[in-house]
């Protein structure tokens, strides 16, 4: 295979006291793909994801982003490297507007005197940018860019969080259980959003417990078990029940899986 | 299992096929089913400052109804504005802290100790005003820093921290001032600048203290910072949902610390206005001002749970307190009924805030 992975993890180890959450774990993400990460509760998949997004610092092992070794000291460092995360809690500030939330922590200043000396944020640019990004993802059922996020439905909030990640991510997007809190119709909309983001060329790491959703959108499925990568499977070649069986240890992984 | 359709879209799950018949809009609002009360709730949620303005209008109507002639007289308006001046300034500092879901019980004593520091240095110790005055302001900021450092470094609840510093600073005031009051005559001889905010200008027949203009300037500056700068948004975000703010890259501890320093500094400016308002530098003046400032903030619609509120609300809140006090006293009722009315206002304001916040649930 000639394509280089955009993100690789080699031999990641993370211990919490006597519990080993990551046990020499490997991980590969290729450009333009949706890689789902599945695993039973306590398998260590959230620790793996936290190591990638900077929320956890591994005890040993190596993370390479675009071929270069990186070590993130915080989620902010990972964000600056171009990795955006849509947290399960969404990390939106409910009382602030959609535009304010899109730019929270990286507000653009106005040009000239107002921005340089009076530190005024460029509210016009923020509103335009937010509207444009929501439009790109077909989310303009949201009428007013200045309405507080708490007035939006669960699906719309998810949409804002995804739009924010897609707008600022330069390398990849991590999505943690994006459909967990949503109804059937809203889940469908979010799955379409995920595919839209993929179409724009950004690779996505999708963590989900929802097997139908995983099998629908993922290009490859990373099965995590006992703190390490058990195997990577092709959703077209494996059934859902087989994936669940592997994830829970009821079935051994297929031998050729690494090539998937 | 899914297979790719010719358009590249994956096929729907079997159980989702029926969705084709469902509406395509994502969770539109059910506006038509709202009752009048729900509409009001939505409206107030979108425009929370409406409430204090309505209450202020009611207070003015009440005042006019009680005694139309005296209530609207120039001298009464002057009195109300003078009463609002110091409370309003403290309320602005208090708003910053309460927006982060904190509270500053020591803001009143920080104001007093700052005025005492300016006064003793400038009037009794003969330090030039140009040095004594900034030292007084610095004093406020330093005590604010102490509050902020205890809240962020030791992770203590703001209520407890400032309850402690309230006592400590109160004791320091008595110690440093030796319980002496510095009279107007001495101030005017040694450092007239310190009582400048008590000087009056006449606008028509209404006499307005310079401190009232100081209040408006400070309010405008803080309003700008809160609404037009990234820092201001971060103050709101920190009070609204600290975890989300941290994940967005905001250093919430730095914001919290800065807010207490800022509040202490504004309290010191209020201390300057206090000298003019009282006409003396007194270690016992303005003892209850910390509670009055919280009252103004809460009646002005700022939520004690953080993240919601405004400077304009606090200004109106301070005016409401002044107007209601004036109306009650013009009605010839005992002073105790002023306190009674303010108490009712506080409880109604917080109950209203709870109700409005429920709109998103």
TrEMBL record, chain A:
Q: Write down what this protein is called.
A: Mannose ABC transporter ATP-binding protein /fructose ABC transporter ATP-binding protein /ribose ABC transporter ATP-binding protein
InterPro entries, from UniProt?
Answer: AAA+_ATPase, ABC_carbohydrate_import_ATPase, ABC_transporter-like_ATP-bd, P-loop_NTPase
UniProtKB keywords: ATP-binding, Nucleotide-binding
A Pfam family matched in the record: ABC_tran
Single GO MF descriptor: ATP binding
Q: Ranges for the ABC transporter domain? A: 7-251
Q: Which domain of life is it from?
A: Bacteria
UniProtKB/TrEMBL annotation, chain B:
Give the transmembrane region(s). Answer: 43-66, 86-114, 126-146, 158-176, 208-226, 255-275, 296-324, 336-356
* Compartment(s) where it occurs, according to its Swiss-Prot or TrEMBL record: Cell membrane
- What molecular function terms (GO) are annotated for this protein? transmembrane transporter activity
GO cellular component terms, semicolon-separated: plasma membrane
Record's bilayer topology term: Multi-pass membrane protein
Keywords carried by this UniProt record: Cell membrane, Membrane, Transmembrane, Transmembrane helix
Q: Name the predominant localization.
A: membrane
Which InterPro entries is this protein grouped with?
A: ABC_transp_permease
The keyword Zinc-finger belongs to this UniProt entry's keyword annotation = no
Q: Does the keyword Nucleotide-binding apply?
A: no
Q: Which Pfam family is an annotated match for this chain, by its short name?
A: BPD_transp_2
PANTHER family linked: ABC TRANSPORTER PERMEASE PROTEIN YPHD-RELATED-RELATED (PTHR32196), RIBOSE IMPORT PERMEASE PROTEIN RBSC (PTHR32196:SF72)
Q: Which named protein is this?
A: Mannose ABC transporter membrane protein /fructose ABC transporter membrane protein /ribose ABC transporter membrane protein
Organism from which the protein derives: Roseiarcus fermentans
